[in-house]
Design brief:
With 314 residues, the protein is of the alpha/beta class. The chain contains 13 helices and eleven strands. Bound molecules: ligand TUI.
Length: 314
Amino acid sequence: MVKSTICELLGIEYPVFQGGMAWIADGKLAAAVSNGGGLGIIAAGNAPGEYVRQQIRIARGITAKPIGVNIMLMSPYADEVAQVVVEERVPVVTTGAGNPAKYMQQWLAAGIRVIPVVASVAMAKLMTRLGASALIAEGGESGGHVGELTTMVLVPQVCDATSLPVLAAGGIADGRGVAAAFMLGAQGVQMGTRFLSAYECTIHPVYKQKILKAGDLCTMVTGKRLGHPVRSLRTQFARAYSKAEYGGMPAAELEQLGVGALRRAVQDGGSETGCFLSGQIAAMVKKEQSAAEIVREVMEEAEPLLLGAAKWVK
Ligand code: TUI
């Protein structure tokens, strides 16, 4: 059994978080992951506070285990979601796509464990100083909003920069990735793409099939010119967006082209108009299974690898 301080800190069985994927990670998926012994996380994405409250209550109807909420800091509703997590006494908050400094005091006073996603050493140091309980170091192999550094490069540097436990994210979908993350100094992992194939993940069937059929070169990054690079499947929409981006389309029009695209992928499954967020690891997601099986499988795979690592030492 692989145990780490993350398990003790949060009262969970396995050091595995399910990423807070906008429009995807709802109360049902989060509860399934938590019931499986990991930490399920509800994504606030660009949704209003009341939606998040509803999802927290749905999750609590399915599990008594700890759940988390991810707050996407670029959301126009970030302020109200920040308040909802306090009112609902959510035990763990993760943040993404920005700096959560202005909310930290309020959350710490409410006894919330704050675990920000960081994509740089500077942000890791700042979050450590401001009272985070742990950090998620997310490399650019991940789906969605991406930073500059890869997981391999970011994780050890974040581990060196903080005394807090670190979870690795980006490019992890099996036990080898988990074992490698521990070798880099992490004490847990966060996976997003792998959970897209969970039975409890209610994305459009077309989205699920695209992930299950994806190859190694299946993703691309768009949105760099607007300052928020996003990794998604290389679909008709992503190619058209990229062409517009590098073809000199004015920024306001480009922004407009992206509006609603995440929702369309998740709810309608349309390749022409939807943006199917995915990590580079999609090619290694090969079957549908329950969220609990995913959590257990990756940790059972990691265990012999970690035990066997000593064979290299002569
Ligand atoms: O947040 C994510 N992934 C996301 S958010 C999202 S929704 C979205 N919709 C439209 C446009 C953009 C996003 C889809 N996927 N991952 C966590 C993450 N956070 N990755 C990188 C960062 C990050 C980047 C900069 C965290 C902090 C940061 O700080 C910059 C600063 O100095 O404020």
